[in-house]
Write a structure and sequence with these properties.
The complex is a heterodimer.
Chain A: E1 4-7, E2 10-13, E3 18-25, E4 31-37, E5 44-50, E6 53-57, E7 64-70, E8 73-79, E9 87-94, E10 105-106, E11 110-114
Parallel strand pairs in A: 2-11
Antiparallel strand pairs in A: 1-3, 3-8, 4-5, 4-9, 5-6, 7-8, 9-10, 9-11
Chain B: E1 4-7, E2 10-14, E3 19-25, E4 30-38, E5 45-51, E6 56-59, E7 62-67, E8 72-77, E9 86-94, E10 99-102, E11 106-111
Parallel strand pairs in B: 2-11
Antiparallel strand pairs in B: 1-3, 3-8, 4-5, 4-9, 6-7, 7-8, 9-10, 9-11
The chains are: A mainly beta, B mainly beta.
Chain lengths: ~120, ~110
Amino acid sequence: ETGVTQTPRHLVMGMTNKKSLKCEQHLGHNAMYWYKQSAKKPLELMFVYNFKEQTENNSVPSRFSPECPNSSHLFLHLHTLQPEDSALYLCASSQAGGQDYNEQFFGPGTRLTVL
Amino acid sequence: KNQVEQSPQSLIILEGKNCTLQCNYTVSPFSNLRWYKQDTGRGPVSLTIMTFSENTKSNGRYTATLDADTKQSSLHITASQLSDSASYICVVTQGSQGNLIFGKGTKLSVKP
C-alpha cells in the first residue's frame, strides 16, 4: 500500500447505527486530517491531529468522534448521524514543518450515505 | 473574510481544445497557492504550488499563473484530453500556521 488509504470506500447507514471510518497513511507524515466534502461546497476541515494530539476541532457535532492511536492511523467514529451528514469524507496527511510547504496528501475518500 | 472564489463553476470543452480556469482570493496573510485535480470518486491530487514570488508554474500540459497584486490565479490546460475531466480546486494557504482555504472547484468535462 502506498500513499493514503481509506476504508470503507462506500458506506450506507441508518440514523441509529454506529460505524467507523478508517484512514492509514504510508508516507511517514506526522499530521493527519479529516475533511467533509459536500456537493457544490468547499472542503470543510473537521479535525487535525499533529503527533497524535488533536490540535483542531472546527465546531464539529459530537456525533463525529475522531481517534488517532498513532501517527499512521486515524479513525472517525460515527453515531446517530443525520441525513445531512451524507457526504464524501476525505482523510489527508502532511509533514508538519516539512520542506514541501505542508502539502497535504489525500486519500480516496469514503462516500457516506445516511438514510 | 478569507475566501477563495473559482470560475466558472463548470465547463464543457471538446478534446484537444485549450481552457483556462480562474481563481480569485482574499486570503491574508498569503503563504502559497495550490491547484488540485480531483477525479470523480477520488481524493484531490496536487498539480502545482506557487509562492508569493512565483508568477508561473508548469506541470506538463497544466500551467498555473499567479498575480499576487490582484490576488488572482489561473490554470491553463493545453490540448485537453478525456482524462482531464475532473474537478479542479484552488487552495490558498494562509499564514505560517498553514490554514488551507479551499475554493468550491471548477468541474471540467472534456468531450470527444
